[in-house]
Amino acid sequence: MQFGINLFPTVTPAEKPAAQHFDEALRLAALADELGFHHVKTVEHYFTPYGGYSPDPVTFLAAAAARTRRIRLVTGAVIPAFSHPIKLAGKLAMLDNISHGRLDIGFGRAFLPPEFEAFQVAMDESRDRFDEGVEACRRLWAEQEVVWQGRFHQFGPVTMLPRPYQQPHPPILVATATTPVSCEAAGRAGYGLMMVPSINKPEKLQEMLELYRKSRQAAGHDPNTGDIHFSYNCYLATDATTAYRNGRRYSEHTHQKLVDAVAEWSRTRSADYPGYENIVQRVRSSDFDKSLAEDKVLVGTPEEVTARLSRIRDLYGDITVSLQVISGNMPYEESAETMRLFADAVLPRFPQPAPADDATSTAERR
Predict the structure, then answer these.
(1) Which of left, alpha, beta for 84 (phi over 0: left; psi -120 to 50: alpha)?
(2) What is the pLDDT of residues 147-185, one digit of tens each?
(3) How do residues 87-112 score in pLDDT, each as one tens digit?
(4) Phi-psi region of 145 (alpha: psi -120 to 50; beta: other; left: phi over 0)
(5) Which of 128, 179, 180, 247 would you call most buried, defined as having the most Cβ atoms within 10 angstroms of its Cβ?
(6) Are the C-beta atoms of 80 and 132 separated by less than 8 Å?
(7) Please, what are the domains in the chain?
């Protein structure tokens, strides 16, 4: 298993000014690099306290790249539906060069109706826009004199500059919340996965992973090499009572921000999002005690969190875990203490591959 940090903001200006949030998040990224974590990740969302402080993860990760040396930088995720592929491919190629090949690119479809409305993009076009955007970016990175005649964009012949540092392109991951068909498509294409354990039953996640791995194998890819990211709210303390009290408070804060963000699904239907009309009830029915019992949050002492991760590995295999170490206006010192305790007492129980000083290609890194 590999472990990184997820800096998904769930904060309002009244709770923490944006400049303070970014100052602290960049300090946490530098600390993660120092402590030997695998990656730092952030999201693309708009308008709401659920991710709204991060409308462009590339901007943040470029700043993180300048403050770090080894750690991987992960977009978790960028949204092709809201960007022209030439613009998106170009700025990601810049980040790959700025970081000397430390970029992993997670793509997502988006799922919040107000974001689609603001960008004047129909939700029923979501899957087609996603597929077209990812493939257009891939070709712009891997090929020259690209001619693209898609449903939503037409261009070419063009040759993207700069060329990606990693050849033929950085590793690609696909975000999926509840949709098995996304897992199947990612496996068929040989891409990695980013999944959300908090809103799925373990049995559902196992089924989705099995479909993903079978699809990889059927397409000629090694079923055991796809990078699979799970994100978990995380709070560690040496005292169990403190860990549970604070972990509960911060997890419930993040959960409420998600409840508010998905509320529009009670009035929205889309053929591209089958079953999402149930997401409101599914999210509302979750609570901290249930999540803790089902190992959907990593809260407790280092020994307890180690045991939770061992059970997670038994369920899903050697996945990559993103630790959500910020929530709302959590003080920097508490996030940093969680990371230090994890690095000191949990990481040694799960031996990590030695990071390369200078990643020059996906093949060399893996």
Answers:
(1) beta
(2) 999 999 999 999 999 999 999 999 999 998 777 888 999
(3) 999 999 999 999 999 999 999 999 99
(4) left
(5) 247
(6) yes
(7) 2-365 (3.20.20.30)
Burial 41-58 (b: 16+ CB within 10 A, else e): bbbbbbebbbbbbbeebb
Q: What size, in residues, is the chain?
A: 366
The whole-angstrom separation of Cα 220 and Cα 212 is 13
For residue 208, give the nearest of 189, 233, 185 by alpha carbon. 185
Q: Tell me the pLDDT of the chain averaged across its residues.
A: 93
Measured CA to CA, the distance from residue 139 to residue 341 in angstroms comes to 42
Is 254 in contact with 324 (CB distance < 8 Å)?
Answer: yes
**Closest CA relative to residue 4, chosen from 339, 354, 357:** 339
| Phi, psi dihedrals of residue 119, rounded to the nearest 5° | -85, 0
| DSSP conformation letters of 273-294 | STTGGGHHHHHHT--HHHHHHT
Q: Which of 239, 363, 260 is nearest to 304 (CA)?
A: 239
- pTM of this prediction exceeds 0.85: yes
Q: Where are the alpha helices (DSSP H) in the chain?
A: 18-35, 57-67, 85-98, 113-119, 126-142, 180-189, 202-218, 240-262, 279-284, 288-293, 302-316, 332-341, 362-365
Cα–Cα distances in angstroms (integers) from residue 265 to residues 16, 80, 122, 180, 219, in the given order:
28, 21, 15, 20, 35
- What are all long-range contacts of 123-126, with beta carbons under 8 Å and residues at least 24 apart? 123/268, 123/270, 123/272, 123/273, 124/270, 124/271, 124/272, 125/81, 125/152, 125/272, 126/81, 126/270, 126/272, 126/273
Residue 230 β-bridge partners: 195, 321
What is the phi-psi region of residue 48: left when phi exceeds 0, alpha when psi lies from -120 to 50, beta otherwise? beta
